[in-house]
Inverse folding.
């Protein structure tokens, strides 16, 4: 992820002629172009600017970027920096190994008798960032580099790429079980970025934060399971 930040910094420091040498492929705007256009519009001609602005208007990644205008950061920049910070905090040899299931899910979850034990999957250790507990952003980000297993069905993977009539991501309805076993219905969405992606729990996430009084730097363990083909996320205090 640090390479993405460095690449962006080099692009911002380069000339438009140098940028055009990067690729001879037809221009297809992405989230990185949205960021570069904001700080270095001279890199693009008028037609490319129009394409980028159309992409921005139709992309859920930038749907709340105006709320970040005080800090001057877009959601894309913010998540890139968060992933870079997480890579620094958790050394590779300390990160959770990939596994299909784990015996360490607390007994209170198992005692609900809702979840087939062989279907329980450990997803990730999650250190909460300020954006994860911000009610205005209303999302929990789960970066690809921190996820320990595949937890989606093929149908869900397809659904996460679908958009509605306004070109907004539709998402997949899931259930979150908080550390006190309270149920919340939320939306799981996938945000594609330049070289990676992140999953986000959105919708009613801010209610989960408020009720549980989650704070920045708090650590959670996140698990998944299925009940009647519905995806559940189980949150456990680490």
């Amino acid at each position: 992820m640090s390479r993405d930040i460095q690449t962006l910094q080099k692009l911002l420091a380069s000339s438009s002629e140098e940028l055009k040498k990067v690729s001879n492929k037809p221009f297809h705007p992405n989230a990185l172009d949205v960021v570069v256009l904001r700080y270095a519009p001279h890199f693009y001609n008028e037609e490319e600017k129009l394409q980028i602005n159309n992409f921005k208007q139709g992309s859920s990644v930038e749907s709340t970027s105006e709320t970040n205008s005080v800090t001057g950061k877009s959601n894309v920049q913010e998540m890139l920096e968060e992933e870079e910070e997480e890579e620094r905090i958790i050394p590779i040899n300390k990160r959770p190994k990939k596994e299909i299931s784990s015996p360490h899910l607390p007994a209170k979850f198992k005692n609900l008798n809702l979840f087939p034990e062989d279907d329980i999957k450990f997803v990730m250790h999650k250190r909460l960032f300020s954006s994860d507990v911000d009610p205005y952003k209303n999302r929990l980000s789960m970066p690809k580099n921190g996820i320990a297993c595949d937890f989606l069905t093929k149908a869900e993977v397809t659904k996460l790429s679908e958009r509605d009539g306004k070109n907004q991501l539709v998402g997949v309805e899931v259930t979150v079980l908080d550390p006190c076993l309270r149920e919340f219905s939320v939306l799981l969405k996938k945000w594609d970025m330049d070289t990676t992606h992140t999953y986000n729990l959105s919708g009613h996430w801010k209610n989960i934060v408020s009720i549980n009084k989650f704070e920045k730097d708090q650590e959670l363990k996140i698990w998944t399971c299925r009940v009647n083909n519905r995806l559940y996320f189980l949150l456990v205090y680490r």
User: Anything to note?
Assistant: The CA atoms of residues 98 and 238 lie 18 Å apart. The radius of gyration is 19 Å. The chain is about 30% helix and 20% strand. The longest helix spans residues 75-89.
